[in-house]
Amino acid sequence: MHSFPRVAGFSVLVIVGAVVILFTSVLAPAQAPKYGGVLVTAPLATPPSLSPHEEATIATLVVAAPCYNNLVTFDPARQREAADAVVPELAERWSWQDGGRTLTFFLRKGVRWHDGHPFTARDVKYTFDVVRGAPNAPGQLRLGPRRDWYTNVEAIDTSDAWTVNFRLKRPQPSLLVMLASDYSPVYPAHVPLAELRSRCVGTGPFRLKEYRIGEFVLLEKNRDYFVPGRPYLDGLKFVIIDDRSTQVAALQAGQLDVSPAGWSRMNAETVKRAVPQLRVIETSSDVNDNLLVNFKRAPFTDVRVRRALNLALDRPSYIQGPRQGAAVAGGAMLPPPLGAWGLPLEELARLPGTGDPVKQREDARRLLAEAGFGPGRPMRLTVSTRAVATYVDVASWVIDQLRQVGIQATLEQVESGTWFAKMTRHDYDVALNLTGTGIDDPDANFYQNYRCGSPRNYSDYCSPEIDRLMDEQSQTLDPVRRLQLVQEIDRKLQLDGARPILGWSTRYIVLASPVRGFVPQVSLHNGNRMQDVWLDR
User: Fold this and answer.
1) What gap in Å lies between CA 450 and CA 2, rounded to an integer?
2) CB atoms closer than 10 angstroms to residue 272
3) Which of 157, 161, 176, 517 is 20 to 30 A from residue 487's alpha carbon, by CA?
4) pTM of the predicted structure, to 2 decimals
5) For the CA atoms of 258, 259, 265, 270, what is the dihedral angle to 10 degrees?
6) Exposure of 366 by Cβ count < 10 A (0-12 exposed, 13-18 middle, 19+ buried)?
7) What ranges do the domains of the chain cover?
8) Which residues are 288's β-sheet partners?
9) Which of 147, 60, 74, 192 is nearest to 523 (CA)?
10) Pairing of strands 38-41, 235-239
11) Which residue has the higher pLDDT, 459 or 4?
12) What is the pLDDT of residues 259-279, one digit of tens each?
């Protein structure tokens, strides 16, 4: 019997071969961290660039996050990302003013960028003017996936070199939480945006030493880091290994210290059987598998077709099939107990695709017939997905489910470097997508994925009523009332088939035995700074 860390406040069971392993709170005795060593891991896939503000993939984020800092971040020792877990980083402190319409940050002094330039409030204003696409912004992102996180920011100004003010159109408590996400680093104003795609110049615990596109990214310790005694490691090496079976073999052979994101239960079980001393953590990913249906392309403009597709996908089959039991049902927000905003479990059982699969398929065929499709005129479509094993597994299941209601679907695999641009152009029929919101917060999720015109609203769904409710919940200070509004939005999104959610996947992290100080957070998009990780060698 092996014992593992208790994760996210509860115990879970994982089957390894015929052995049931209980994840408990048993940890090794406290030990003083050691300095030195290079931790080796791999991103999910080839990073399209090193610029997290221009990407929507964890492949870029895990590589770049150790280079940068935020104004604020989440306490790395805690697993839940919430307002009470926000701690200072580049800002020493902050203050809400003007009835919640101004958020002022008081910055650290003496911090320097990796190239020696001093960090000031100018960098903060520059970064978030660029990210939100302000009219007078001094630069423009190639793609701004999280632009809509900041639609409520009316202006950003600096009182002096160490004070920056975010002026809001209305109160928005979630702004502080969104600024704490790993997706919200501060960029240097003196480095052109185009350069940051191939070299990260930050203030973070690690600095870029070497980048060989398609081979590896090597980061070295920033010996001038402003946090005393950090980082412990001499460096981080991210080896580019796109093939999942090769990733598994590399970890078994001791060539990797930490598994990449996106591993399945089977991957974790395989390496654990081969190398029993490896440690496995099972926790939340805060990532959902979802079906994108192109609202602007016929025949998907027909609500009957969209409802038929939603009913055809049997969620219990998805959980037990491609996800091998390592997922939970949910709506647009991460479901409880891990999520703070998701629909109650009893409501989830009533959503489309969760009932009797035989009746659902009958209803789907009837709706397709009403829309003019049937045995004599079958619907034909392409299911696009990212050329990553996790995506392809679920997309193949989707194709089989559609076949059972008479839809003839073919699979299109799209390389990671062009996947998000293709989705932003709405260049697809139906697509299987994985969506991580960055934090478990309604503003971060709703504004980027469902708001009319958002770059990450890949399905082009648009509802003025939903947009109005988004704004209402965002400025609601009463947490009980806000939760009611959030769940009302979620119900409407599910019934509209805005982005049919298949489920929320479980995350498996495999660590080599010397790895210490690694605390996974609820979202795999956070906790990637790595300044507290060390090797017991």
Assistant:
1) 43
2) 22
3) 176
4) 0.87
5) -90
6) middle
7) 52-205, 285-506
8) 435, 504
9) 74
10) parallel
11) 459
12) 998 898 999 999 999 999 999
**285-506 has which CATH code?**
3.10.105.10
Express each pLDDT in 443-454 by its tens digit: 999 999 999 999
Residue 284 vs residue 155, higher pLDDT: 155
Q: What is the pLDDT of residue 24?
A: 29
84 pLDDT above the threshold of 80: yes
Q: Is 513 exposed, middle or buried (0-12, 13-18, 19+ CB in 10 A)?
A: middle
Q: Residue 14, class by beta-carbon neighbours within 10 Å (0-12 exposed, 13-18 middle, 19+ buried)? A: buried
Peptide bond into 276 cis (omega under 30): no
Distance, in Å, from the CA atom of 223 to the CA atom of 205, rounded to the nearest integer, reads 8
Q: Which amino acid is at 290?
A: N
- Does residue 15 register a pLDDT over 70? no
Reduced to 3 states, what is the DSSP secondary structure of residue 287?
A: strand
Label residue 305 exposed, middle or buried (CB < 10 Å: 0-12, 13-18, 19+).
buried
Give me the CATH topology for the region 52-205: Dipeptide-binding Protein; domain 1 (3.90.76)
Q: Using H for helix, E for strand and C for coil, what is the string for 47-59?
A: CCCCCHHHCCCHH
- Could you tell me if 154 and 135 are in contact, meaning their C-beta atoms sit under 8 angstroms apart? no
**Structure-token pair, residue 102:** 């101004």
Count of all residues that appear for the chain in the document? 537
Same fold, 52-205 and 285-506: no
In this prediction, residue 29 carries a pLDDT of 52
Percent of the chain scoring above 70 in pLDDT: 95
The gap from C-alpha 225 to its chain's centroid, in whole angstroms, comes to 27
